[in-house]
Design a protein that fits this description.
Elements (H helix, E strand, L loop, with lengths): L1 H19 L2 H9 L6 H26 L6 H18 L20 H4 L1 H24 L2 H22 L5
The structure holds heme C (HEC).
The site of heme C has 22 residues, from helix 3, helix 6 and helix 7.
Length: about 160
């Protein structure tokens, strides 16, 4: 029967089209963001990373067993999740250290897109977890969420960013 053959074929085509998209490309598509030029993406991700650095500094007392005032905590946690959500769209091909002299992004990001996406997802999930805990106000939950988030920055940098020195 023609029809019963056509349906599974169509499904297989749809599935293979889905899997051909790299995780990064799929996230870019899902974010709906207009594709940025490599230079624009570099500038935008540097701003996002600086915002993450500022939020990280604001939250640092948590790692030393101190508290952060609720308003500052919530602002920093929101920055983490909002900036984190932007990152997937900010690494277009052609924006590595090999392409742009100002970049510290290693070509590994594009040769290992699954690994990079996984590192990014781990960070994003932890950032959203922290935002939720910050809203809830339970100190133990906040500390646990920050303990989960904190190493995800360095874990990604270690593999995908050229150290500055
Ligand atoms: C999924 C990977 C990934 C995660 C997660 C990540 N970063 Fe980055 N970060 C990078 C890459 C790659 C660069 C280099 C970008 C470039 O130069 O093109 C970078 C650059 C930076 C910079 C330098 C920005 C500049 O140009 O001055 C800072 C600061 C920074 N990250 C802080 C953080 C902090 C803090 C966190 C966690 C809260 C974090 N990053 C999470 C990948 C990541």
């Amino acid at each position: 029967m023609m029809l019963s053959r056509l349906i599974p074929l169509g499904t297989a085509a749809a599935l293979s089209a889905f899997f051909v998209l790299s995780p990064l490309a799929a996230q870019e598509a899902a974010s709906g963001a207009a594709a940025l030029s490599p230079a624009e993406a570099l500038k935008t991700r540097a701003e996002a990373m600086k915002a993450l650095g500022g939020a990280n500094r604001a939250l640092a007392p948590l790692a030393a067993g101190q508290t952060v005032p609720a308003a500052a905590l919530q602002t920093a946690a929101k920055t983490m999740s909002e900036e984190g959500d932007k990152l997937a769209a900010l690494f277009p091909a052609g924006s590595s250290i090999a392409d742009l002299p100002e970049s510290y992004a290693l070509p590994t990001i594009w040769s290992d897109p699954e690994g990079f996406s996984a590192a990014l997802e781990k960070f994003r999930k932890a950032a959203h977890g922290l935002e939720e805990a910050a809203g809830g106000g339970d100190q133990a939950a906040i500390n646990a969420a920050f303990a989960e988030l904190r190493p995800t920055c360095g874990a990604c940098h270690q593999t995908y960013r050229q150290p500055k020195n």
